[in-house]
């Protein structure tokens, strides 16, 4: 087991708690619970074994019941689970044995009062996949809408409400009377039966459109449904189902039967009174939602702009420059709070109706999509080993700093001052990012793409960190540092005052830092960088670079050769033997005299070289994706890609392995198979002494952790030297749950009445309590003192019961 993170928070719509103080977010096979006051994670619901696709909070039966925290979740593992997310605790599990893509519960039937009669069953409607193979059923129609009896924990017989080729999201009306799905150019709407019977008839209508429908929303009080299509249009049907959903067979009230000419905008004699169209979005509409009073309609799409439409007049206002395509808009029980989920794995909490962003829950950003000529670059991920952070390139020309131990975004650095419009072609490529050992300095390289062969530009930038939260400021910018050649690698000296950049143009440059202290109102340091020296070897492209642990040796790969230099005097020291293909990665192994190199191409190779003998120690023919070496030892880890032929047989679909080596031994000390290794990265993390108490494995604090991040930026952190690679337990997350409890998130339970409990000295060794003789009457002193100073009853109970037992000495015969 390992500590996992980097999961998508926008795979399914989130849900607010009844008091709007918590936000439940589907994150892979768990549900993470966040505080809306702080934006920090409080707890998580763990139990599903596959992707969680739906979370539905049970509404309160009375205003006093808003403090209750119950929810239902559905997953691709085929189970529906009932939780108390305040504890958190799993209350019930229903296994329907088919994957669930979506679930809605139109109405929650509360416990009836006396004389009201028999309690009615609770039903959910689920979108599932028929996994049974039959000759008469084609694979095209295996997605089904089924009815599930949650009270009796089973599907309702063979009742199938609808079948489609593709799994769609079920949308329920706020009144709980209707639910529907989009199916290509059609809308299917069902009316929920009034009776709580399993086999009550469920009526259905279909509305038609000429374009593919991408989003739908129901009005909270009226029979109005809105739909968005791929062209950016928004259609609004009024009076849908007035014929089919009223009376028996829809003929009781003849006034509801309208003449075709009286249905403006309605197609194919659909059951609706009228249909109107709005058009502002330039691309497909992903978000549609009515306000709680039904007066406004919210829409959003690929442009990253939230549009608010006044339903009666069509007037609109905007929340622009969100910076990423919008996916979901969710209203909370608090009319002043809403949330909007974006494609860049962020959830913004909005203050309504002004639509100001109050808090942002930042997940890890997805990998960038680059033009074909730049896809051969490395993963572009740098690790801050001391702080446990990862620096990643993002599509909006930023570097995101992400805490691997806290699983949350810390900050973003705007590398290129350029407005990013979602969907636009990339005009700037951030090709490399490097951090100093202490994380206080950063260097980035970028390429401005040429337009029709004109205007290409390469930049090397140096950054210095601010006082808090990794807020970097630009200190030096160098245009065309290697003439018109691209930068292949950027590496920091261990001291941080030197950087080497290598280029495909056949040279490398060593940059020195000039540290000036400026005294203004507040004294601060100003860093400027200048070129110290330039080196080359037979005009060969320089493809990789690395400093030794003490900084006295600089290794630069000249295609298939390794050149060793004195970085201070710019003197060539030695040249190591030739590899078969160009070297793309170099790393010195801690404080040892070994150097590891990885080459790619038709004959890939992982090789370890001895600096004392200037010769090859050992090598393997492996396709290496990433290398990382430990600072204080000779160990290193390599991420190797497996041949496609062995994925499905030997490694069961896993496409890579992590190999842990001791530099002098060609036999790996540990091997882990992984998925999505292409584009992955590795990094050793030093355990900070200040946070050592927070990270405990088998009762011990590890000295070093290994982080693996796959091609989708999902990651695991574990102790590589632990035989079983146990889960990394965060026993005390200061600044997360602690911050939630210390004022910003409010106080609950005992603390809300009597205040905070006194802090106990955890360093005092816990010795077993030995009861004294009954004559001392200890129970009279256990409960003495003021009530607000008493420890919880769970701690008092065992001591009180043991105090009533008489101590007896065993006689030895």
From TrEMBL:
Pfam families tied to this protein: Beta-prop_WDR75_1st (PF23869), Beta-prop_WDR75_2nd (PF23769)
Compartment annotation: Nucleus, Nucleolus
InterPro entries according to UniProt: Beta-prop_WDR75_2nd, WD40/YVTN_repeat-like_dom_sf, WD40_repeat_dom_sf, WD40_rpt
Stretches assigned to the WD repeat-containing protein 75 second beta-propeller domain: 399-655
Main localization (coarse): nucleus
Alphabetically ordered keywords of this record: Nucleus, Repeat, Ribosome biogenesis, rRNA processing, WD repeat
WD repeats by residue range: 206-237, 278-319
Name of the protein: WD repeat-containing protein 75 second beta-propeller domain-containing protein
Species for this entry: Hibiscus syriacus
């Amino acid at each position: 087991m390992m500590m996992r993170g980097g999961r998508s928070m926008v795979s399914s719509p989130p849900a607010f708690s009844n008091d709007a103080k918590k936000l439940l977010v589907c994150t892979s096979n768990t549900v993470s619970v966040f505080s809306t006051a702080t934006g920090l994670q409080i707890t998580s619901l763990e139990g599903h074994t596959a992707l969680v696709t739906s979370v539905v909070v049970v509404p309160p039966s009375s205003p006093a019941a808003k403090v209750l925290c119950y929810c239902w979740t559905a997953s691709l593992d085929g189970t529906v689970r009932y939780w108390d997310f305040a504890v958190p605790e799993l209350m019930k599990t229903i296994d329907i044995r088919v994957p669930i893509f979506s679930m809605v519960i139109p109405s929650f039937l509360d416990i009836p009062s006396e004389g009201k009669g028999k309690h009615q069953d609770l039903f959910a409607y689920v979108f599932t996949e028929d996994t049974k193979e039959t000759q008469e059923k084609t694979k095209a129609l295996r997605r089904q809408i089924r009815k599930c009896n949650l009270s009796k924990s089973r599907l309702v017989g063979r009742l199938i409400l609808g079948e489609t080729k593709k799994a769609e999201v079920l949308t329920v009306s706020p009144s709980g009377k209707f639910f529907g799905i989009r199916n290509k150019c059609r809308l299917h709407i069902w009316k929920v039966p009034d009776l709580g019977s399993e086999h009550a008839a469920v009526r259905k209508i279909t509305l038609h459109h000429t374009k593919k429908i991408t989003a739908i929303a129901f009005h909270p009080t009226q029979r109005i449904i809105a739909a968005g299509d791929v062209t950016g249009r928004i259609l609004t049907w009024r009076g849908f189902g007035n014929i089919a959903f009223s009376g028996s067979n829809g003929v009781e009230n003849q006034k509801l039967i309208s003449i075709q000419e009286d249905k403006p905008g309605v197609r194919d004699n659909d059951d609706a009174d009228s249909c109107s169209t709005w058009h502002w979005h330039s691309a497909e509409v992903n978000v549609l939602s009515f306000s709680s009073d039904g007066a406004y309609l919210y829409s959003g799409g690929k442009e990253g702009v939230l549009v608010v439409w006044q339903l009666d007049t069509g007037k609109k206002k905007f929340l622009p420059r969100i910076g990423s395509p919008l996916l979901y808009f969710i209203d909370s029980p608090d009319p002043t709070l809403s949330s909007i989920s974006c494609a860049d794995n962020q959830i913004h909490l909005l203050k309504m109706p002004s639509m100001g962003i109050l808090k942002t829950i930042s997940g890890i950003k997805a990998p960038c999509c680059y033009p074909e000529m730049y896809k051969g670059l490395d993963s572009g991920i740098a690790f801050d080993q001391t702080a446990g952070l990862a620096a990643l390139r993002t599509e909006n020309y930023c570097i995101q700093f992400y805490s691997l131990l806290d699983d949350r975004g810390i900050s973003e650095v705007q590398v290129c001052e350029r407005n990013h419009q979602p969907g636009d072609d990339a005009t700037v490529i951030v090709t490399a990012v490097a951090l100093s050992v202490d994380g206080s300095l950063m260097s980035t390289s970028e390429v401005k793409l040429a337009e029709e062969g004109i205007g290409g530009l390469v930049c090397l930038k140096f950054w210095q960190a601010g006082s808090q939260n990794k807020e970097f400021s630009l200190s030096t910018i160098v245009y065309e540092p290697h003439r018109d050649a691209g930068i292949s690698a950027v590496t920091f000296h261990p001291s941080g005052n030197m950087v080497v950049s290598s280029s495909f143009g056949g040279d490398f440059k060593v940059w020195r830092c000039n540290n000036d202290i400026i005294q203004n109102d507040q004294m601060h340091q100003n860093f400027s960088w200048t070129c110290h020296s330039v080196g080359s070897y037979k005009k060969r492209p320089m493809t990789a670079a690395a400093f030794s642990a003490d900084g006295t040796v600089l290794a630069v790969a000249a295609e298939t050769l390794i050149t060793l230099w004195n970085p201070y005097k710019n003197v060539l020291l030695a040249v190591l033997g030739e590899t078969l293909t160009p070297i793309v990665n170099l790393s010195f192994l801690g404080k040892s005299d070994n150097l590891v190199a990885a080459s790619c191409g038709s004959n890939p190779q992982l090789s370890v070289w001895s600096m004392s003998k200037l010769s090859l120690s050992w090598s393997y023919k492996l396709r290496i994706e990433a290398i990382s070496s430990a600072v204080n030892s000779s160990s290193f880890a390599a991420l190797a890609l497996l041949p496609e032929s062995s994925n499905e047989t030997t490694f069961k679909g896993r496409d890579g392995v992590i190999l842990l080596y001791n530099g002098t031994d060609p036999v790996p000390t540990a091997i882990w198979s992984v998925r999505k290794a292409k584009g992955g990265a590795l990094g050793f993390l030093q355990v900070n002494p200040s946070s050592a108490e927070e990270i405990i494995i088998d009762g011990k604090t590890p000295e070093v952790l290994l982080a693996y991040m796959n091609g989708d930026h999902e990651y695991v952190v574990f102790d590589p030297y632990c035989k079983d690679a146990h889960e990394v337990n965060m026993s005390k997350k200061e600044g997360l749950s602690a911050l939630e409890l210390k004022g910003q998130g409010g106080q609950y339970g005992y603390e809300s009445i009597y205040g905070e409990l006194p802090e106990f000295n955890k360093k005092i060794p816990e010795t077993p309590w030995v009861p004294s003789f009954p004559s001392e009457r200890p129970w009279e002193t256990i409960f003495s003192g003021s009530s607000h100073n008493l420890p919880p009853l769970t701690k008092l109970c065992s001591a009180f019961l043991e105090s009533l037992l008489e101590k007896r000495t065993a006689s030895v015969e």
